[in-house]
Each structure stands twice: as structure tokens, then as C-alpha cells.
Amino acid sequence: MLGVSASASVPARQIVPGRPAMTLHPVVAAVTERIVARSAPSRRAYLDRIARAAEAGPARAHLSCGNQAHAYAATGPDKDRLAEGRAPNLGIVTAYNDMLSAHQPFEDYPKLIRAAARRAGATAQVAGGVPAMCDGVTQGQPGMELSLFSRDVIALAAGVAMSHNCFDAAVYLGVCDKIVPGLVIAAASFGHVPAVFLPAGPMTSGLPNDEKAAVRQRFARGEIGREELMAAEMASYHGPGTCTFYGTANTNQMLMEVMGLHLPGASFVNPGTPLREALTVAGVERALAITALGNDWRPAGRVLDERAFVNGIVGLMATGGSTNLVLHLPAMARAAGVMLELRDFSELSAAVPLMARVYPNGLADVNHFHAAGGLQFLIAELLGAGLLHDDVVTVAGDGLARYTEEPRLVAGRLAWGPGAGHSHNERILRPARDPFQPTGGLVRLSGSLGEGVIKVSAVKPEHMRVEAPARVFDSQEAVRAAFRAGELTGDVVVVVRFQGPKANGMPELHALTPLLSVMLDRGQQVALVTDGRMSGASGKVPAAIHLAPEAAEGGPLARLRDGDMVRLDAAAGRLEVLAEGFAERPPVVPDLSAGHEGIGRELFGAFRAAVGPANRGAGVVV
After folding, report:
1. What are the pLDDT digits (tens) for 208-217?
2. How far apart are CA 171 and CA 194, in angstroms?
3. Average model confidence (pLDDT) across the chain
């Protein structure tokens, strides 16, 4: 048996060997207790299911000779060791492609992983590949309507890879927006198997992100041509590795570390460096050390418990991370039998200080954040403030305190030592006692227009409350046309509806950011209200997003009209329409069929029909 059960209570004080006892923040304790209670039936069923799978174990020893011959036919020097069945076999699930700069380094990882496994007396096989979409390529294009659904496709594809049932542990190679959440869903589904996530790291710093944003705004105003815009974009996105702004991809990396699925300090080491390679090898060695064949079995289902997900939300708030994770974390958690609600995010946000300013919330990029002390300093500060659970299981060992240590190469060998004891740049990273703001970066919104979220970490105080007439659009193309025609000149709440998961897959509307930013810079009061998503790179424009119920299901946005007064009050967490008889209006029912075909969209009709609401993670397979 796994030796784990649904948590019954949360200790008020956390005892960590070698460290003084810390008092857990009462809000963190209360939210965790509530999640534990809410999740008890589903978590118990989940743990029972993976316990049964663990008892059966990998099927290699039970396969027929023909089954095994197929599994080992192309493994070359590993064939005899695999046939013996006594050494651990590591499954590699890879999201490699070279459309994504962040995933291009994974091209060479299987060879490196196999070599490291052989040196450890084990074996490794690529179990399978999963798709990986670059949202930067599809932004504002029809392909973006497949982006969110790709998360669930990735989970399915990884499940197919792992269904060979030949693996004692798995390593997951993924970084970007939907890829990591999809892989986590799969890792949770195969929760009896230990799982280590191996990142590739961020590209080196190029054109500063604020300068790139300024060039985009000049292009939107018609002040420069496409040649200058292209030069700026190429100078910003210039090499292998993750884009350097703090969007969804880098928020994913933070989460994997705070939730204990990376090795400590692995997230933000650049590709192609000796330290990056050493961390990859160490991740392989650790995965092999935590299988059921040894004495330190750490199945993914034990790592992914209620405390781990609370820690992930706390990290999200403390760093001002991507709003996309408000969609992904509930879906990831549900795969492990843990039930999250927007209320949990909101209450934790109110208790967690914003400690980081990384673009689009500041001028620095993730390389600067890492140099300032990075996640090791941040985790140490949050632990010291009682805002993170230390009593967790991680792939590195017991206790999150291990993640306050940073990796170094000492005489060519990898070693971990104490992380930064102070911030090396308080314009980027501050201690918990002196944060950039006392509360986190995300706020839950509710009111007569439904339930949604707003990212406030980059919104100026004077823009936290907007009350203006609505201008209602059914597509982002219509918004761009109105902007070009000079129609958006006064204070306005731009409403873009029929962008939810059932309508068209819930695309990101990040292509609207330059236009809305221009309007804001003109001195207009501007806000965006939508049942769609914004990119994790979106910043200063107040945007009420993920509204549920969505317009395509008759939600309140379907009853809005041009000129209705809308009030967005981020400080109060309210989103209201101030119009007589609003609730009695019939909802608009548009013909959305034109957007359901072309560029692969016709393949996803079943997904649009089955997908859940945004406030529950917009899941299809969970």
C-alpha cells in the first residue's frame, strides 16, 4: 500500500529538523483545512486507486515473451538488462519540438538521460511524445482556439505513453503554457509512479521586455512599420530557452519547484550550460533512487497532495504569476482528487504579499529575478512567514526547506548549499516583511456579470476601479477594427464575449494588449471584460477574465448591450452592470459555427461539447 491517506488536519506549527518551529499562517491553515475537508471523498478514492495500481506494479515481469520482445527490440545495449527485469526502467515523456524555443533543448535530453541511467545501472526509454503548441506563434490566430484544449490532449497523450506499464519512474520534459499542466494531470493519473519534471531553463536576456512592449505600442499607433517591429521581436525572442518574461511558462517552472516536482534550484538555469546538464543528470539519478525497487519510494500521488497545491497557489500570489494557472491548478488538482475553488485563490491572495516584480509586473526578466536570489530566497522568506507548508513530500526529500538551497558546480561536481540570505536587488525581489504590496497578484471577482479573476500585480492604483459604458464585441478582430476606425476614444469597458471554452476553446486575447495599452496611455479609463483568457504576459490594463457562466451558455455577458454602465472594482472584488432590467433581458444567441472549422478546429467539437466551466478549470478529461 502507499501508506498515505486523505489528510485529516493541518498542524498549526511545522516542525522541521534543524530549524525552529514555525507557526503556520492562520489563513493558510484555514484554507488548507477547507480543501482537505472538501476533497476527502475524492482524495480517498484517488489514493485507493493508485494503491491498487502500486500493488500490481510495472507489468514487465508479467508480460509475455512476445510483449517484452516488442518493448525491448530497439534498446540496443540495454536489451539484456531490461530482459532481466531487476534494474529500474525510466520512462521519458517528452514534449520536444523546435517550434517552441523553450522545448528545443529537449532534443538532446533522451540521449543524456539514457547515458545517466546506464551509469546508474538502470535503463531509460522514451515512452512517448506529446504535442506542444507555442502560444506566441498562434497568438491572435485561429490556432489559438486549440491552445487550452491542448492541455487535455497532452494529458491523454502522456497517458498513452505511460500505459505501456513498463516503467518504475518517469521523467517529464516540458516547460510551456499548457504542456506542464497536461503532464501533471498525467503524472497524477499514474500517481503510483514516481515523477520528476526536468526543465530546460530560460533563454538568455535579449531586448528588454518593456522596450519590446513600447515598440508594439508604437506599431499599434501607426508610428513605425513592420520591419522595425520584426527587428524588435527577433531581438527579444532570440535563442533556445523559455521566453524571459514572467508569463505562464515561467510561472509553471515556479510551481514545479514550489510543489516539489523539480529538484531545488532547477527552474531558471539557462540551457546549454554545465550546470543545466548537471541538474538534468541529477534529476535522472533522483528519479531512479525513488522507485518502489529502492528504500525511498516517492510516488507522484504522495507529492501532489492538498498542501502541495496550497503551496503552488501561495507561490503564484507571491510572484504575481500568470492568470492561466487559475485555470490549470484546479484541473491539475482534480486529477489527484483535490478540489480547488476560486475562493481558495482569493483568500490566499489576501494573505500573501507580492514579493517579486518581473515583467509584465516590473522591468526585470526571470534571469534578473534568479540573480537577485530567485526562488530559493522567496521560498525561505515564505517559509519563515508561515505562508508555505514545510511538511510536504517532494522528489528531493521530505520538507520544502530543502528548496531554500541552491545548486552549484564545485570542482565540476554538483552540490547544494544555502541560497541567498537577502535579496541582491530589492527592485526585483523583496523580503516578506517589506513586499511590493501586502497582498498577492490575483483577485476573484463576482457580481451580476458572473465569477472571474483579475491580475492586479501590474495595475496602477488609479486603474483598480473603472466605471464606464460598455462597448460589446463578439470577437477580438472586431475590437481591432473599431480601434483602427477611431471608435474607441472615450472611457470604455471593452467587452469581448463568446470567447469561453464552449464557444471557441477560450483563446488568449493577448493581441489586444497593445491597443488597450495605447488607450490607457491616452488618459482614457479602460478595462477589458471577457469570458476568454489573457496571456500571462498581459499586465497594466485591468482585465476581468475567465467569466463564468460564459456567454455561449447564456451567461450574463450574453445580455450586455453597448452603452450599459459597467463597474469593475478590483479592490472590492466586484464586477457589476448598472442597467435596469438587465436580468430580464433575453441572452444573445449567435451562430458560432464559422469558428468551428479550419486549422483543425473541426476536430475539437467533442471537446467544446464536453468542457467544464472556467471557474472549475475548463477541463475535458478531469
Report:
1. 878 888 898 8
2. 9
3. 93
Q: What is the 3-state secondary structure (H, E, C) of 219-268?
A: HHCCCCCHHHHHHHHHHHCCCCCECCCCCHHHHHHHHHHHCCCCCCCCCC
What distance in Å separates the CA atoms of residue 244 and residue 360, rounded to the nearest whole number? 10
Alpha-carbon span 420 to 390, nearest angstrom: 19
CA–CA separation, 43 and 47 (whole Å): 6
Q: How far is CA 47 from CA 44, 168, 512, in A?
A: 5, 18, 44
Instruction: Report d(CA 333, CA 303) in Å as an integer.
Output: 12
Instruction: Report the DSSP beta bridge partners of residue 91.
Output: 125, 170
d(CA 308, CA 292): 22
**CA neighbor of 313 nearest in space, from 303, 302, 327:** 327
Q: What is the pTM of this model?
A: 0.94
pLDDT band at 2 (very low <50, low <70, confident <90, very high): very low
Q: Which of 475, 579, 599, 463 is nearest to 527 (CA)?
A: 463
Establish whether the linkage from the previous residue to 360 is cis, with ω within 30° of 0. Answer: yes
499-516 tens-digit pLDDT = 999 999 999 988 898 899
Sheet arrangement for strand 169-173: 123-129, 89-94, 169-173, 195-198
Tell me the three cell numbers of residue 612.
467544464
**DSSP code per residue over 6-43:** ------SEE--TTS--EEPPHHHHHHHHHHHHHHHHHH
d(CA 125, CA 111): 10
Residue pair 53/168 in contact (Cβ under 8 Å)? The answer is: no
Q: Which helix (H) or strand (E) holds 414?
A: strand 413-418
Residues 6, 338: Cα–Cα separation, whole Å:
10
CA angle (404 as vertex; 402, 409 as ends), nearest 5: 90
